[in-house]
Model the fold of this input.
Amino acid sequence: MDIQTYYASKKRLFLSWYIDFILFMTLWYLISYFLGLEDNLPFWAPYSVFIIIRTILEKIFGSIGYFFLSIDKDTKEVDPNVYERENWLTMLFGTLLVLEGGKQLIRWTETLLPQPFFGHIPNETIQIGIYLLFGFAYILAGYWFFKVNIKGFYLTILLIMTNIISIVLSWNLWSVFVEKMVLARRNMQDLPVREGEIEFLQIFFPKGILAIEIFLFIALLFTYKRFR
Done:
């Protein structure tokens, strides 16, 4: 029996670059934070470094994006076991999960303001640990989603349910958190708080976030048959 050969489309190759960019920028922000380079480099520096490193490594080792998307670096063939089971929704979830994971890993370097978690406000050290744990978990779930591995489905279910339960248990804490968050961000930007800004976000948090999580949970269920 002949095995069908599939080659990576331009969209798939572009997505591999995007995945590499997300992970590279995550690492770049962390290194810049620890070395204190955030304000000492031109805005174009990370983009130039990324293009150079990505181009060189692709020719030698391939790339993380190729690995996530099951692309052979030499032939540009795609693993048929993955290609024949994935669809646009599994690809979308994989991308969103990796993107969210990157954001979680660097969020504490921007404004470290502990947010409600299961009905409590953690201290800063625990909050950093939560960000890092969730960051790696989101990226791992995204990787498994790209591989159409059932582990990605279950891990994403766990992450979404954790968020939903935490939001509900922390319902009365969000109003104060939102006010502190807005003040902290505007202070960092050296800008005044806009009229009604805090009140608007207090309406959105936590109802809007909860609605988004429920929507994602429902959308996630439509991917299940792809893992069978």
Observations:
- The chain has a mean pLDDT of 91.
- The two ends are 22 Å apart (CA to CA).
- Residues 1-84 form one domain.
